[in-house]
Amino acid sequence: MPSMRSTESIFLRLERRGWPMDVAGIYVLDSAPEGPLDFDDVRTVFAQRLAASPVANRVVARAPLHIGEDRWTQADSIDLDAHMHHRAVPEPGDLSALWEAVLEVTGEPLDRGRPLWEAWYLTGLADGRAALVLRLHHAVTDGMGLLALQQLLFDRAPTPVSPDHEQAALVGRPHPSLLRRALVEVPSRLVGTTLAAIRLVDRLAHPASDQPPSLPGYLPSLTAPPPVTLFNRHVRDPRKSMAALSLPFDHVQAARKVLPGTTINDVLLSLVTGAMRAYLSARDDLPDKPIRTTCPVNIRAPGNDGSYGNHLTTMWVDLPVHLDEPVERLAAVHASSAAAKKALPRSRADWDSLADVGDLLLPGVVSAAMAFAGTRAFGLFPPTQNLTVSTLAGPREPLYLTTRRITNVFLRGVVCPPIHLFFAAITYDQDVHVTVTTVRELCPDPDALVDGMRVELDRLLSALH
């Protein structure tokens, strides 16, 4: 059985009840005179195309005696009835009702006894629209892998379902007994642990950059931590809140002219900064120094963007919520982002070191450490970050699920203690679709955050005149 990469097992160890670790795409489908697509048609698309995905039947094979490694195996069949579901969004069928339905159907972790994906077809939206929610566990793939799967399921032109088309066959793998796995994998884990220790010592002795040595970003800093905000508080209730907006891509692109040399990502981070400043200020929680976000970075080789798995590292960017003017904030974001990009070799080494630390410890020890991060006692340590901001470049032309045009693509972010706020942005067709996912106990009104992003964009554009 193929080994599970440490970065993949980390996402499994982070997960617990109420805190799912899956990537979720939300695809809003246009209406038609004949009404929403029939669920059977949606199911047929999955039945005919999923076999082409290498992750569609991937299943976790638990480590024998909890000493060896969790590994991947392939199921030889998929029960679509266990993975695909249909329900109606409650009245009035607006976007708020859609978000509530999405949070309800994605509120718990995926069943690890089956392939780690799930789809929900939601009807009952206003004006006859519908939505498809597609979940993929982060251990299986990252956001780029979700884009690869949507390319498999969706078309670039209306394509009627062909019910006569045969369902593609899946190829499974034999499952060895636990005893056989233990005899093979426990010794191999000892070898792997030794190699991980060697790699870790080598990275410490030979840093990835010529910058002064410093703690990895995922460890609390006692000298330069970000400020504590309301989003760093301990929570008891894992229920989430969610809001979204769509911004014209041309408007976001135009905002770059305010400060030549800035990128689309810089502008989006600046919009988040302005929104966070307004939100924290209104709640008497505005710090006098920048807050800090992590930004996942794709490290796939050029031309390999369609691959599955987790091929990412993280960069740490300061968001200057303490600055008054939008243009000043954009300039500071650009400078911090540029510095973070220069430090990417070190960030990638830090991420690899975290994976090696995971290899050095028993899975149960790592899981206990992850669980501790969600306790009140963990709040005694300085925070490592205040939020996460993820951006993805999706297709710049419309996609179709059979004959229905996909009008909007949103992403439900991953929220897991101690990080309780996730901004996810994806470019699709002519817009940038942004979603805020957070914890209801801390932020019952995430619409205020997306409204703040719109206001910040307007202020940047007004600076052009």
Automatic annotation (TrEMBL):
It is an enzyme of class 2 (transferase). It catalyses: an acyl-CoA + a 1,2-diacyl-sn-glycerol = a triacyl-sn-glycerol + CoA. Pathway: Glycerolipid metabolism; triacylglycerol biosynthesis; Lipid metabolism. GO terms for cellular component: plasma membrane. Its EC number is 2.3.1.20. Residues 309-460 form the O-acyltransferase WSD1 C-terminal domain. SUPFAM superfamilies: CoA-dependent acyltransferases (SSF52777). One of its GO terms (biological process) is triglyceride biosynthetic process. Keywords: Acyltransferase, Glycerol metabolism, Lipid biosynthesis, Lipid metabolism, Transferase. Gene3D superfamilies: Chloramphenicol acetyltransferase-like domain. Residues 6-267 form the O-acyltransferase WSD1-like N-terminal domain. Coiled coil: none annotated. One of its GO terms (molecular function) is diacylglycerol O-acyltransferase activity. Belongs to the long-chain O-acyltransferase family. This is Diacylglycerol O-acyltransferase. It comes from Intrasporangium chromatireducens Q5-1.
